[in-house]
Amino acid sequence: MNDLWNYGIFSKYTYYCSCSNNSFSNFSKKKKKIVEKGNKKLENKNLSIYELIKSSIRECGKLPEDFALPQEEDNGILWADGAMDGVFLYHTAINEENIETLKNIVFQISEGKFKEAQNNLDHLDFLMVSSRTSLLNWIIQESEKINSNNLYKFTISQLKTSKNKESIKFSLAVLLLMGVENDVKAMEIIKILALSNEFTLFCLDIIARLENSNEEIFEIVKKVKGWGRVHSIAYLEVTNDEIKDWLLEEGCHNEIDPAALTCAKKINLLELLDEENISNKKFNDISYLITALLNEGPVSGISSLENKEMLIERYLKKAKYLSLTENDYRAVMMIQEYIKDDEKINNNFIKICNEILNSERTVNNIKELMKKGYSYDIAKYIKIDIEPYALEYLQSNLLKNPYIIYDISKKENIEKLVLLVEKRLPLEKMKGSPTDKINFRNEEFTVLDVAVRTLENFEGIGKSLIIYALNSPYVNVRYGAANTLEKWKNMGYIFPDEIMENIENLEKIEVDDELKEKLNKLVK
Known about the structure:
Elements: H1 24-38, H2 49-56, H3 83-91, H4 100-110, H5 114-123, H6 132-141, H7 148-161, H8 165-175, H9 184-193, H10 200-207, H11 213-221, H12 226-235, H13 241-251, H14 260-266, H15 269-272, H16 280-294, H17 308-322, H18 326-341, H19 348-357, H20 360-371, H21 376-381, H22 387-397, H23 411-424, H24 443-454, H25 463-470, H26 475-490, H27 497-509, H28 513-522
């Protein structure tokens, strides 16, 4: 069955992404979601990975937002689906792994030793993403010595039955060489696997060989988020207005670093800004993309654009009369900071940014946004007194967005905050025996944690909150209290008897050794 071998070019793709996170609270929400995913347990451990994915698909054709494959900790880290491969591709120098063991496994498969090969694959510690190029090149070179029938049969079977992620990726990579795109039943399996961020990249290599590949990729990119979306955007070609509009409106809206640079290039952002009649909605989407381009991290964004100065000029020209939303104002703010750091860009743009940000319309809009819990960082940037708005917002939304507490820094407002927290939280019910668990879900404990950390520069204020935090079952909340007390002590504050008593009591039963040592130092 040598006709299964496909000697097509095995192409490498270059991917781009850029961080779009704009606030501490957004980061915390994302962190919470990732950890919740990491802790998700299989309801039925007898399911294969394929069966788990297939049984989880909703009527809309997507997986649930909190879907995650079962995983084990890697050096104490729980990786979101696809994250380990994504980090390898985007944030590390690519070094191919030694593939000698994989070569032996391929020969075992070729000889029909399927059980032995599967056992070896399941127990092999490897990343397919760092092995695939070398392995596929080797398979092509050794194709005459390999039984393609057995290799095809084994890898197709693994897609449906394996409980091992890397075994499935191994199978997908090998099938890329074997014309699997012509196998209708196999492609149905591959399209289902593609819905999981863990396998999207490997599935895309195969799907890209279909005659209607771009249509199929567009269907996938609309159904995935996270790393699956990042990879899918890299493969997607802009062949019509529907795809172009989707990339602008949805492409960069992702729970992890989006492919901002790729989106900007594919939709021709510079040309888009030349349009005479841009709606406020479209401009808001453009602003979001501009912000993502400016928020450069380990991966390039706006700095990689040849015409970045022209892009900024055209954007600001529109922003003068179209800016209305938080995204718009944040983009202008970030442009101003970017220009300050880049001496090659026309400094006249700073004047334009100032005019936009300090206009009466902008100031009034920002004040209205703060009443709804938004734009505090922008307000602070243009020197609006944010604390009255923060306190007013927290009166009705303490649990909804507690991180706004960090924006309060005046003593008189801190005292008001303490009274609010004491009034709103069921503090007595929040006491519990110390555990090593970290709180990510309980909003009331989040409020307490943020509040006690905010007190670190206000010695003696909020003593009761500190005591309740010391008696929290969650280790991060107890750490917050201990760190604040440590800061107070360094400022010369003498602990009252009630605080000393609670520190001593906690030290006796504390389960975290590092925190126990910190408590011991506090009482000396």
